[in-house]
């Protein structure tokens, strides 16, 4: 199911963790890049687990695709945490990218007072825009950008000559998807490779959310009639019908409709859309905790039963 669809190798995770733990003491400020459309689901849990009291600049990148109102909410929410400053940027706006540096300076006044470089490390899951940001800050192309995460690469360390030293993360930080909703949102935004999850499942999940949170966007884009259909299947069918996704016999080709919806979401054609809100996450995490608890109880019960059976058979 959802949890298995993301390639999450314990070996890689262990190595990344060790390398990051070794580098953290030599870092003054962590720059954590997130996707503004999914600020929670695009986190890597390792970062908060090992950051200790290191200051963090949380960069909500791709704000050009996100819902500005929710981006504001997220910034407020993230900054409630001690030592965290948050900023929303789009890498097409160079001056916004430069503002990351101002926040780093604010978070490391002791380094400035001592006339020392501020040592930063840029971290984040694949595809959030780390390389693009590094290239802009460096003023030249030092990092490879693209849609697929590179598997092997060298750690970069760049002296920006403005009192700031930038290095990227050793190893690749995958998102950890304990919350099934996060898996769908990562797939919908394209953070996870297309093959990892069934397109149609992702589209069903997405269209259901959009129907509730962004009905106006769907109605306008696909010229849908109001009120919108109640089920996600009917809604996706309605979109497919408007886009001529018909198969022989007049059936709607849902796979084609799914592709259209997901592609238009990713490209921003559907408008500025954010797939999660802070209060949603709180609820979802309660559910994840309950599910984990239930699974643990079930496991304990099975173990007990196995033992009883074993003892009974022995007698
Ligand atoms: N829409 C949008 N796309 C961006 C932005 N920043 C980066 N991207 C795109 O996101 C993709 C991944 O960027 P990259 O820098 O390679 O991400 P990395 O894997 O974190 O290093 C590329 O296709 C970039 O062009 C942004 O602010 N807005
Ligand atoms: Mg990169």
Layout of strands and helices, then pairs:
Blueprint: H1 2-5, H2 10-23, E1 29-35, H3 45-50, E2 56-61, H4 68-78, E3 84-88, H5 94-107, H6 109-113, E4 118-123, H7 130-138, E5 157-159, E6 164-168, H8 180-189, H9 199-213, H10 215-222, H11 232-242, H12 254-267, H13 278-314
Parallel strand pairs: 1-2, 1-4, 2-3, 4-6
Antiparallel strand pairs: 5-6
Helix pairs in contact: 8-9, 9-10, 9-11, 9-12, 11-12
The protein binds guanosine-5'-diphosphate and magnesium ion.
Q: Please, could you describe this protein's structure?
A:
This protein has 315 residues and is of the alpha/beta class. The chain folds into three domains: 11-168, Rossmann fold (3-Layer(aba) Sandwich), CATH 3.40.50; 198-267, Conserved Hypothetical Protein Ylqf, Chain: A, domain 2 (Orthogonal Bundle), CATH 1.10.1580; 277-315. Helix content is 50%, strand content 10%. It has helices at 2-5, 10-23, 45-50, 68-78, 94-107, 109-113, 130-138, 180-189, 199-213, 215-222, 232-242, 254-267, 278-314, and strands at residues 29-35, 56-61, 84-88, 118-123, 157-159, 164-168. Strands 3-2-1-4-6-5 form a six-stranded mixed sheet, with helices on both faces. β1, α3 (45-50) and β2 (56-61) form a beta-alpha-beta unit. α8 packs across α9 (199-213) and α9 (199-213) packs across α11. The chain is globular and about 70 Å long. Magnesium ion (MG) is lined by residues 130-131, 143.
